[in-house]
Amino acid sequence: MIKLSNLSKTYGSGPGAVQALKTIDLEVPEGAIHGVIGLSGAGKSTLIRCVNLLERPTTGSVRVDGQELTELSGAALNQARHQIGMIFQHFNLLSSRSVYANVALPLELMGVNKTEIRERVAPLLDLVGLADKRDQYPSQLSGGQKQRVAIARALASRPKVLLCDEATSALDPHTTGAILDLLQDINRRLGLTILLITHEMEVVKRICHRVGLISGGELVEEAEVGDFFTAPRTELGRHFLNDFLQLEPPAALVERLEPAPGAHTHPVVRLAFGGDAVSTPLISRLARECGIDVSILEAKVESIQERTLGLMIAELIGGAEETARAIAYLETHDLDVEVLGHVQRDA
Amino acid sequence: MSSAMLELILEATLDTLYMVGISGVIAALLGVPLGVLLYVTRPGQILARPLLNQVLGMATNVGRSVPFIILMVAIIPFTRVIVGTSIGTNAAIVPLTVAAIPFVARLVEGSLNEIPPGLVEAAQSMGATPYQIITKVLLPEARGGIITGLTITVVTLVSYSAMAGAVGGGGLGDLGIRYGYNRFDPLVMLITVAILVVMVQGFQSLGDALVRRANHK
Ligand SMILES: Nc1ncnc2c1ncn2[C@@H]1O[C@H](COP(=O)(O)OP(=O)(O)OP(=O)(O)O)[C@@H](O)[C@H]1O
Ligand SMILES: [Mg+2]
């Protein structure tokens, strides 16, 4: 439904130019909820704004529903934009218009007549649960209600694609959850394709099917959400995951960690295991088959959509050879193993 | 006070209202579009035309920097072309309008500045044309600010009209100077000032009420 090929965007020119996007390739199939996550300044907003050409890409192609948008301008581009709804972090509702009139705006812009506007706006207000607020003004609404109005407004032109630029970043966690549920409901009911950008793993975990990780204007990693949460392939991906899970080794242990193994050290590892591995008694087998002891320092189980993710920080106690074998054993059983460091063997 | 005097005062009051009213309306009709143009032709805006923007900006600044009393004299030939004379209330309307247009334009531009750029972006994402953005987003969102600007303009016009009166334009300023100063009749002077105060007060209250109605913020 959305296909970005070889997309790049440079702001300005000469020595002050900023290359915000570098050769991005991204495809979002029809009906999918695709997340893009990244740190501040990574180019997330630029990326999503290129999809409806609020920002014109420097090079590359943007296809939405088979139509090449970069070739369009003027009336043809405006026409194409009716296929693409967008919601924003700060809602961007018109303060001069009531809830009803805000939702009616895109229809007015398309030249839909008043009777039809009335017929189309009412069910949208029902959909977002704000039928009783139709004559209120944005200043009288809470943040969550404003975003619901913005969602209804974005859906008014019956788009095929919905773009969400940090749509929940200005909301508290509870309201965020409710808005995400609404988006998921819309995705399921209307088959709407959603591209959303965020800096919060919680958002990705909750509703995305696939996720892309963007850093310095490049898409550095792309995966199914379950895979991304169980085995991120990049350092940055792991960083996001650890921040999200907040599973860090105890401070006292960190102080004793040494980067390189010594003659009398044990490795401390972080294990992440998804899928089948969760239900297998791996630790006791590890102890038996590799002849080592395992001291579990911290552990956590998270459910990521339909998958379960186990996480553990453990010290592998045994000789150098045995512990190396144990790590290899874990890796063959589809565990993501990260050696955090080494601690001196207790005297 | 004689009834002839009262008649004079009433007539002068109506003359002032007439000058302020006509010049205010024309200045609004021309100044609001000019203000919008100043805003939308800026670099990076929806109808970016940097050169046009600079020319308009410069013309507006020139209009605003000439002191009213000099403007009035300087454009006498122009005034003659428009109304056929350079004396009287009709003749005063021309410089009042010319002075008010750039004033209105800058105030309108200022209130458009207050609109969060995200609103224009949202409209663009819905496929709005520049004309639709102006009529459905910019003007309605700036309505309160524009009314405030027009109120300030009208109040300024009241005092300018008194100045215009002093050089033969008629109205309360003319009356105040002729009787109050030239013939030293302090009562007439006092009454004209009192009427001007009430007038300004009235326009301000009307403007404030309209702003309250326009704003849903
Ligand atoms: N209009 C602009 N002109 C010049 N540079 C820009 C412009 N917009 C963004 N940039 C630059 O492009 C880079 C990417 O910005 P972008 O807004 O896409 O980041 P982001 O990932 O959305 O960040 P955040 O999470 O803070 O919103 C940044 O270095 C930013 O400074
Ligand atoms: Mg951003």
UniProtKB/TrEMBL annotation, chain B:
Gene3D superfamilies: MetI-like. One of its GO terms (biological process) is D-methionine transmembrane transport. It is a multi-pass membrane protein. The keyword Protein biosynthesis does not apply. Pfam families: BPD_transp_1. Keywords: Cell membrane, Membrane, Transmembrane, Transmembrane helix, Transport. Signal peptide: none annotated. Residues 13-205 form the ABC transmembrane type-1 domain. The keyword Transport applies. SUPFAM superfamilies: MetI-like. CDD domains: TM_PBP2. One of its GO terms (cellular component) is plasma membrane. The chain crosses the membrane at residues 20-41, 62-83, 146-167, 187-211. It is found in: Cell membrane. Belongs to the binding-protein-dependent transport system permease family. CysTW subfamily. This is ABC transporter permease. It comes from Bisbaumannia pacifica.
